[in-house]
Amino acid sequence: MTDLRSVTEPGDVTDLIEVEALEKVFAVRRRGEGSRWRREKREVRAVDGISFRVARGEVVGYIGPNGAGKSTTIKMLTGILTPSGGRLRVAGIDPARERSGLARRIGVVFGQRTTLWWDLPLIDSYRLVHRMYRIPDGRFAQNLERCVELLDLGGLLDVPVRQLSLGQRMRGDIAAALLHDPEVLYLDEPTIGLDVVSKTRVRGFLRELNAERGTTILLTTHDLTDIEQLCGRVMVIDHGRLVYDGGLAGLHEAGGSERQLVVDLERELPPIEVAGTRFVRAEGARQWLAFPASASAAPVVAAVAERYPLVDLSVREPDIEAVIAKMYDTGGSGTQEAGEKSLM
Ligand SMILES: Nc1ncnc2c1ncn2[C@@H]1O[C@H](COP(=O)(O)OP(=O)(O)OP(=O)(O)O)[C@@H](O)[C@H]1O
Fold first, then answer.
1. In CA terms, which of 22, 78, 168, 280 is 20 to 30 Å from 156?
2. How close is the Cα of 26 to the center of ligand 1, in Å?
3. How far is CA 305 from its chain centroid?
4. 28 CB under 6 A from ligand 1?
């Protein structure tokens, strides 16, 4: 455990989600080696004793490599799966025991599946949600208007869901999950497969929802920009165990991440030597130097500028994806949307 932050004390009434030593074990059968007929039983510990609390109004990213146990956790939090062990409360409710009572308090969006009626115009799905949840008429109209405005659904309400693009459908799904004013919103891969414009719109909406309504959000994602732009806190799960729970800055520290200085010199020169930096590589007159992410860039930049003939200089922010990949036993994928700030 790198930095398991105690977010709130036990018994704190503001805790909306309480998870203690939660476990889910699946019994799977697989064919025994060397025999077509013998089948051996095997246990998969999908969630292996995790504990956390989420306070009302928090936006928490829940990340981990494929098969880490994210979806299994969300399914237990929504009451779809019954835990094999441990304790779980959402808004004071045991999800597996009171699934329908809980449904009124939570909203769920699974990025890869839709909860909308495929053949019906979008608005008809919303009317069905209105009736299913017995949402008061005024509240429904108000929530629908707000979602339509912020998610830009105006021109889509009469379009059958099957004709919507992935991004339009996702926005439609998010609205459907929010019409009954849930206190908690679970999002499983909310931006998966979306183009950059749709991603930005969805992220903007979620930020606004949290700020305006104080809706607590727990989201799983493989897109770390979602985390960087939305989440004040991130939980990392690997092989069913929490390996990190804390802020983004702490994640960089925990991963021992480095920032890079990209230096464009007037001409090709031997490797730059400046205290507190590590020469990484050179390509013609361009050189890359690494320095600890926790250190200030200013003295490093000043020292390089004073001693070397410069054309340009920029700082490359630590690649969060690489930091997290270090935490996973399985490794991770390359760089994505790493920030680069020009200093000249
Ligand atoms: N119904 C099931 N029966 C047996 N094993 C299961 C079942 N559901 C999940 N698992 C196993 O549990 C582990 C965790 O799966 P889970 O779907 O929770 O991971 P995940 O972190 O959501 O992965 P991904 O990012 O790929 O969706 C995996 O090894 C998976 O194969």
1. 78
2. 9
3. 39
4. yes
Q: In this structure, what token pair is assigned to residue 184?
A: 């908690």
What spacing in Å lies between the alpha carbon of 71 and ligand 1's midpoint? 7
Ramachandran angles phi, psi of 258, nearest 5°: -125, 150
Q: Which of 43, 44, 66, 328 to mutate to test the pocket of ligand 1 (most atoms within 8 A of CB)?
A: 44
Q: Which residue among 23, 25, 71 is best mutated to probe the pocket of ligand 1, counting the most ligand atoms within 8 A of its Cβ? A: 71
What is the residue-level pLDDT of the chain in tens, covering all 344 positions? Answer: 433 333 334 344 478 999 999 999 998 877 656 556 566 788 999 999 999 999 999 999 999 888 899 999 999 999 999 999 999 999 999 999 998 889 999 999 987 788 899 999 999 999 999 999 999 999 999 999 989 988 889 999 999 999 999 889 999 999 999 999 999 999 988 888 888 888 898 899 999 999 999 999 999 988 888 888 899 899 999 899 998 999 887 877 776 678 889 999 999 999 999 998 999 999 999 999 998 877 888 999 999 999 999 999 998 877 666 777 777 654 433 323 333 333 33
Phi first, then psi, for residue 9 (nearest 5°) are -75, 155
pTM (two decimals): 0.77
CA-64 nearest atom, ligand 1: 21
State the Cα–Cα distance between residues 160 and 191, nearest whole angstrom.
21
Q: Closest by alpha carbon to 155, among 115, 198, 122?
A: 122
ipTM of model? 0.97
Q: Look at ligand 1, atom 10, and give the residue with the nearest C-alpha.
A: 46
The DSSP call for residue 318 is P
d(CA 303, CA 321) in angstroms, rounded, equals: 29
Q: Is the CB of 221 under 6 A from ligand 1?
A: no
Chain position carrying tokens 């480095």? 258
d(CA 17, CA 233): 14
Best CA proximity match to 189, nearest among 209, 212, 166, 158: 166
